[in-house]
Known about the structure:
Protein name: DUF1329 domain-containing protein
Oligomer: single chain
Helix content: 10-25%
Number of strands: 24
Keywords: Signal
CATH architecture of the domain at 152-456: Clam
Strand content: 25-35%
Pfam families: DUF1329
Shape: globular
Organism: Spectribacter hydrogenoxidans
InterPro entries: DUF1329 (IPR010752), TAT_signal (IPR006311), TAT_signal_bac_arc (IPR019546)
Largest sheet: 16 strands, mixed
Distance between the termini: 68 Å
Amino acid sequence: MHIRRFDRDYSRRRFLAGLGAAGTAGVLAPLWPTIARSGEINKAYPDELLSIDEYTKGKVSTGDTIDASNVEHVRDLLDEIKYQQIRDMGRKLKIGPTTTEIMRLSPWEYLEATLRNQGKAQFDDRGNVVTPDGQPWIGGNPFPDAKTGIELFAALTLSWGRHDASLYAIKEYDIGAQGDLEYAYDLVWAELAPVARVSMDPKPYWRAHMDKLRFQSVIFTAPNDIAGTSFLNIWDYDQHVFPDLVGYLPEFKRIREYPTNQRFEPLVPGGTLFLSDAWAAGDPMYTWGNYEIVDRGPMLTGISDGWNPDHPNWEHTTHGGPKGQTFWDTTVELVPEAIAVEAEPTSYSRAPVGKKRVWFDARTGLPIAMNSYDRKGNVWRSFDGAYAIYDDGNGRRVMDGDHPYWSWAHVHCYDIQTGRMSRLEQVREVGAGHQMQVNTDNMYDDYLTRNALRRFG
Length: 457
């Protein structure tokens, strides 16, 4: 007979004890010192948090599919919207093994910089992350052993995709409440970091833009009636300052400046994705407030198996909902420790959102789910996706320099009050020859200037 030394009640007590400001990730040992020694998480967590078989006492096993018939066995591992989708809408989740090797959970150079720069980050008198000599951050996660909600959001806001420059080729599908495909778009989404650079030269700073945190654009390439519609966000490093937001609308043939605080509406008809939703941290950090860690514990989410190399364009398959096309086919795994943080939009007097709750993977600080709530406190929208190392272990891989590419693979943006769903997937290429890029020198000139927007328009 196998006797468990540490059961679920022990882990739960340990997580509850870690809700305060002094909380440290890990159950059996502090997490990040364990990772620094071995690159593995095993010694920081008991078996019951590393195996869904152990956690559910055999009721659910690796390789099983979670559906309405067995979802109650894992209800405490799901956010409330995902639980309702499985129970009532036919959503299914395939269970994969827990990833224990840290270098498979983020870009290689980002994690190396995290280990190299541990202990060097601090907040200045404005609350921005700086080095001990007051300079902008130099790369990697500044707070890998985050003890507060603001530390978790600071790391996420500093680097969304964890690459110095990323161009995502994206297909978006907007599904109505009756399950019909109502809109479909091709777009490219570009992000470039002038600071905290770990791969591209010059690093850690592009000194001409050291006062900026990121350049970010979204450019729609299809269908024809919306092709050329584009938006450019330029973020200040100071997280109290709203980004500059400009857009190009082909019907007006000119660049237009937008009110940058209107971040809670879709960019194009049919969508449920807001600018505010990006990476669960789409707004400057101090335009939100009252950050509070409200929960810790294991969670099921898509961490490492989201890439689909079987399709030449990496496109994913779907299931569920009234017409079988509401949800991506998704593999999830047991994340041993997720940290839930709530925040409120303190600088947006007209925001329809009352608060958001974001779950972070304690191992990496990555956002793994987000629910937002309306002004009455009712759950409203969810944002959940899947990540991947783009390497199937059988010779099919996408490279990022010397290492396989790591990134997000697909995302659900669901409005539970209207029943509308936006599904987005990262693909190899969208129309007009726009292909996924990572850490390429030409990205700024090609996608992240006003002239670039005009050229696409």
